[in-house]
Every structure is written in structure tokens, then in C-alpha cells.
Amino acid sequence: MKRATLAASFACGLTFGIGLLISGMTDPAKVEGFLDLDGAWDPSLAFVMGGAIAIGVLGFSVAKRRSTTLLGAPMELPARREIDARLVLGSLTFGVGWGIAGFCPGPAIVSIGTGSLRAVLFTVAMLGGMVLFRALESPRAPRTSGAPIASD
């Protein structure tokens, strides 16, 4: 990987992690409060999600018009757009895991840095699920989900 790309990736990841810490998204109680519609509902996560969606929409609208990234690498956006059973099942699995654990991948990894045992356990379980998925997927024919991921 080129140094500029590596530095940009690090800077983006660091900014994302700091944003998760500042917004409180690394606290499972924040997620539980958001999901507690019958009790002391905490809508702050909805505002964080709304801001993230707005930035994502803006970013993808710019990215769609470009053939290369700002650092000169080829722009590789997903090509598939259909909603199929696989996508719905994956989304449901993600949502249930998020609701049970109070973490999704980004906040869990950031929380490991704070010394959270709960985040470590979640991350180990998540990685185990990824390994299991890959093992179950490997006998199947390869699927293409868009452009291949570049490896500088």
C-alpha cells in the first residue's frame, strides 16, 4: 500500500474513531437507550445516524462522478443494487447482534482501546462469525459484488 494511501486511511480511521468516542457510540448503554422505545428512549443515536447518512449520500454522489480517488487509485464502487434474501438475512443478523451486544464493528474496535472486556468478547465473536461464514461460503461458486478490491 502506498504511504499516502496508508496515511490517509489511518487519518480517516482515527477521525472516525474519535467521532465514535465523542458521540458516545462506544457505550452500549447508548444503543440500549435508543432501542428502548417503551422506556427512557434516547434519540441521540438517530441524530448521529442521520448525520452519517447525510455525509455518506454526499460522499457517494461525488464519488459516482469520479474515476479515481483523491489519491489517484481507481474508484471502485459496489455494482450490485438489488435487495435479495442474502442481504436481508445479513441485515437482520447484524441488527440482532447490534441489539444484543450494544456494539457494531466500528464502536467495538474503538472500545477495545478503552479496555472494554465486553468489546473484546464481541469482536472475538464477530471475527469467529466471519471465519464461519467464509468456511461455509468457500464451497459455493465465487460471487461478484462489484469491482475487485485493489491491494496496493
Give the arrangement of secondary structure elements.
Elements: H1 3-23, H2 28-35, H3 44-63, H4 85-101, H5 105-112, H6 117-137
Helix pairs in contact: 1-5, 5-6
Description:
The chain has 152 residues and is mainly alpha-helical. The chain contains six helices and no strands. It has one domain (3-137). Helix 1 (3-23) crosses helix 5 (105-112) and helix 5 (105-112) crosses helix 6 (117-137). The mean pLDDT is 86.
Structure at a glance:
This protein has 152 residues and is mainly α. It has helices spanning 3-23, 28-35, 44-63, 85-101, 105-112, 117-137.
Task: Looking at this protein, list some descriptive labels.
mainly alpha; 6 helices; 62% helix
- Calculate the mean pLDDT score and round it: 86
User: Total domains, how many?
Assistant: 1
Total helical segments: 6
Q: Between the first and last Cα atoms, what is the distance in angstroms? A: 4 Å
For the biggest sheet, the summary is: none
SSE string, helices as H and strands as E: HHHHHH
Strand percent estimate: under 5%
Radius of gyration (Å):
18 Å
**Shape summary:** globular
Q: What structural class do the secondary elements suggest?
A: mainly alpha
Strand segment count = 0
Helical content (DSSP H or I, runs of 4+): 55-70%
Unreliable runs, pLDDT <50, ≥5 residues? none
